[in-house]
Amino acid sequence: MATFLYKLGRLAFRRRHFVALIWVALLTLAGVGAASAPTAGSTSFSVPGTEAQKAFDLLEQRFPGMSADGATARVVFKAPDGQKMTDAANKATVKETVKELSDGSEVASVADPYTTKAVSKDGTIAYASVKYEVSGMELKDSSREALQDTAQHARDAGLTVEVGGDALQTTPETGTTEIIGIAVAAVVLVITFGSLVAAGLPLLTALIGVGIGISTITALASALELGSTTSTLAMMIGLAVGIDYALFIVSRYRAELAEGREREEAAGRAVGTAGSAVVFAGLTVVIALVGLSVVNIPMLTKMGVAAAGTVVIAVLIALTMVPALLGYAGRKVRPAGRKSRWMGGKRAEKKAASGTAKPNMGTRWASFVVRRPVAVLLLGVIGLGAAAVPATSLELGLPDDGSQPTSTTQRRAYDLLSEGFGPGFNGPLMVVVDAKGSDDPSGVFKTVGEDIKGIENVVTVTPATPNKAGDTATITVIPDAKPSSVATEDLVHAIRDQGTRVKADTDATVLVTGSTAMNIDVSEKLNDALLPYLALVVGLAFLLLILVFRSILVPLKAALGFLLSVMAALGAVVAVFQWGWLSGLMGVEETGPVMSMMPIFMVGVVFGLAMDYEVFLVTRMREAYVHGEKPSQAVVTGFRHGARVVTAAAVIMMAVFAGFIGSSESMVKMIGFGLAIAVFFDAFVVRMAIVPAVLALLGKKAWWLPTWLDRALPNVDVEGEGLRAGDESRNPADDRAPVHV
């Protein structure tokens, strides 16, 4: 592989005009496609295999035109102080609002609060339910605007009016902190390279890669039903890995220049060595993202595949466009150790010439760890273990309007409904009774309703509403607790247990659905998929790392270290978003259960990103070891060449992820924080402390590989042994001989 990538790097350097033209053409093509693509709107959400989805599908069959999974909105009215919603003037305003709401082109039905008795006991709060023919993701912007305009007309008449429900789903705003994250990345790159030109290369190539990826997603969004969160995740991952991969190539290029090689040769060797690490690091990220398909949630699968596509683009750009741009930069990109005049370059050169230059920070730190491996290892493991303690209290759920900021109309509507009708009113359960196989459907409907009334935590049970055929009915159940509570989850399971007994007695099927039940089912599905997903991703990556490092213990250590960092990161997420620690600083206005997707996202994305550092740092150690250095000295050598780059890469990745903490969407905010803190733990505690400590303790055993496995594995030559000039007589197989202990 190293030889092929070496030739590719040299070719890109020589044919830089052609390479640059290809990438500019791709960016232009993707941009034109995005600009001319129809507006994405048909992003359906389905969760195959869940009871809630089965109930939705059944309702579509038995209640044609009901739009069971259609968007809903609740327009909540509150009378001015001293008045009631039953007063004539207020009643007239509500009637006019209901009439105006009914005129919407996508509106299926509007329930008059005075007809449906949707007025609170004290008469101060009422609500009108609006049902749409399409889902919240498919709803046109014009329908949302009409809903908000109608609410404003009622406000102008003197009422307090707020709107809740999924009809107001909008594209999340990431805020200015995302730009700040990119700015931090730029500062880190300038400090790392000591040159504006060298620092600008990773930023430019990452932005081009993200531009191509996001534009392609936008162009295909309508055809493939890609949601807005898909492009957000792709941008988050694409920026982080795009900058990091280019950083690795440019850093190795400068190191090759420092050894006295010509620029074209240095570019080829940089792509042949660091490029090999980039390819394998990118493969681990792609495996982790594509592996999300095992969860069998179509939306999650699309998000993972789209983000993986952006990572593939980042790898290709790092291997081709980066060496091409290095050709354009010429002497403006200086050899490693040389900085521009304004960054103190002359002072550094004088120290180097006089022999007074100190070893870099990476060398000093690695030397310390090699001398005190046990103390460093224990400190790192205990520290991560302490950070992971809050994860033992992890509660999972999906966000609802109650987790929205208090400045939003959805949250204010949620609070008004809780005030007037109780917290459970925000999460009604829809019970679907299929009595087609029963001799007395009406009797079954009545029995099921009576049984549900006797279950704990039930406030209201509406009479059954049968379909025209009379063989299927819906029953609305109002819980006593809020939608995201454990009590409501227990109630859903209790109703389903009751349905099992009904099935045995009457052959009728009882299903529980609605947004609350769907959230519960999705959470359970994600929990059930976590271990198989973990086994798949870690297993495949473990095999890949055996191929890269030609070792059993190094990949095993990498996987265990990753688990430590993920658990610690989950503990931090629980502390902030569930317990409320530093919630004000993070802009978390409402604490609650951690988003159900968070653990599986953390496992997938963080594993892929963690392997970036593992591959880049440890391949330099492996390279030094196979070329004759002692194991402990190889650790120090790996840090001398790689610690500065890995540190810069981690800080950049943290800055990019932290930029998404400013998002208005709670899911994006949580993912941004979780990934940023996970990168911190993994890069600075696991890879920078635990990894060198373990390798120092293992010595030669770290690179042991059974002889039979060594013969079976192909030699991918990540260390670039095939590129070593003037050493053709040396047998490359000798460098990968297993270490017998």
Keyphrases for this structure?
741 residues; alpha+beta; 5-stranded antiparallel β-sheet; 4-stranded antiparallel β-sheet; 62% helix; disordered C terminus
Task: Please provide a brief summary of the model.
The chain has 741 residues and is α+β, with helices and mostly antiparallel strands. The chain has 24 helices and eleven strands.
Walkthrough of the structure:
It is a single chain. The chain has helices at residues 2-14, 16-36, 51-62, 88-102, 141-156, 177-193, 196-224, 228-258, 263-290, 298-329, 345-354, 361-371, 373-388, 409-421, 441-453, 486-506, 515-549, 553-578, 583-586, 598-626, 631-658, 666-698, 707-712, 732-735, and strands at residues 72-78, 107-111, 125-132, 160-164, 396-397, 429-434, 458-461, 465-466, 472-479, 509-513, 594-595. The protein is an alpha+beta fold and 741 residues long. Strands 6, 7, 8, 9 and 10 form a 5-stranded antiparallel beta sheet that branches. The longest helix is centred in the last third of the chain and has 35 residues, at 515-549. The protein starts with a helix and ends in a 6-residue tail after the last helix. 54% of the residues are buried. The model is unreliable at 725-741 (pLDDT under 50).
Strand content: 5-15%
Shape: elongated
- Give the CA-CA distance, first to last residue: 29 Å
Query: What is the residue-mean pLDDT, rounded to a whole number?
Result: 82
How does the helix and strand content classify structurally?
Answer: alpha+beta
So what's the oligomer here?
Answer: single chain
Layout of secondary structure:
Elements: H1 2-14, H2 16-36, H3 51-62, E1 72-78, H4 88-102, E2 107-111, E3 125-132, H5 141-156, E4 160-164, H6 177-193, H7 196-224, H8 228-258, H9 263-290, H10 298-329, H11 345-354, H12 361-371, H13 373-388, E5 396-397, H14 409-421, E6 429-434, H15 441-453, E7 458-461, E8 465-466, E9 472-479, H16 486-506, E10 509-513, H17 515-549, H18 553-578, H19 583-586, E11 594-595, H20 598-626, H21 631-658, H22 666-698, H23 707-712, H24 732-735
Parallel strand pairs: 5-11
Antiparallel strand pairs: 1-3, 1-4, 2-3, 6-9, 6-10, 7-9, 8-9
Helix pairs in contact: 1-2, 1-9, 1-10, 2-7, 2-10, 4-5, 6-7, 6-21, 7-8, 7-10, 8-9, 8-10, 8-21, 9-10, 9-17, 9-20, 12-21, 13-18, 13-22, 15-16, 17-18, 17-20, 18-20, 18-22, 20-21, 20-22, 21-22
